[in-house]
Amino acid sequence: MTRIDDTFARLKSEGKKAFVSYVMAGDPDLETSREIVHGLPAAGVDIIELGLPFTDPMADGPTIQLAGQRALDKGMTLDKTLDIARSLRATGNQTPIVLMGYYNPIYSRGVSKFLAQAKEAGIDGLIIVDLPPEEDSELCIPAQEAGLNFIRLATPTTDDKRLPKVLQNTSGFVYYVSITGITGAAEAQSADVAPEVARIKSHTDLPVIVGFGIKTPDAARDIASIADGSVVGSAIVNLVEQGKSPAEVLTYVKALADGAHSA
User: Fold this and answer.
1) Is 6 a catalytic residue?
2) Active-site entry in 5, 27, 46, 60
3) Structural domain total, the chain
4) Residue 172: CATH number of its domain
């Protein structure tokens, strides 16, 4: 059992849905992003998605792309990203942290070395968007052998023939992308999402969390009501881009979390 597994078991016993928040490590700078991450658990976040900045974020829209570029411009690195997780663990907080990013920085570091460092830093799971199931031997299986969940994305174009392949080595939860295209491009519609969540659940016992296109507390509630939880990323990153203070960002996050938890 990982911290992610324990979190979903606890939420289920409480009759609650999960709220997952995404923030880009190092945006707008290391210390500000560290302060935001440290404040997320008290704001009601059940799982933290920590973005690893990368120079070619092909699955991300302009909001996340620019966040990653801001972080890289301020000197953000893989080591500094892991240090944000390590610093949260040093406070005694056990909120699960999922590192979300691309394979290149991990490959450059070396898979075995990276996994040992991630585990030591307190990372609980990985979402690596450019590694398909056909490449599970590269990172997915070694990660799970190291005790990290490997979370896979399912999308509206993942048909019933493809879905079992996507799910075969997935653990922790399934991240359903509610819209086609890039992050931040449209708004999720519960009427469209509901049958897709039901379809995925017919293939797996894992929790299904829905992200992309969720921007308000009401949307977080509506989507969580038909899934096991909701994810908000671009809307939070937008506030950082606007220069909002950590306190202002966390106030917004709390409203989103309250929305998801009320589902």
Assistant:
1) no
2) 60
3) 1
4) 3.20.20.70
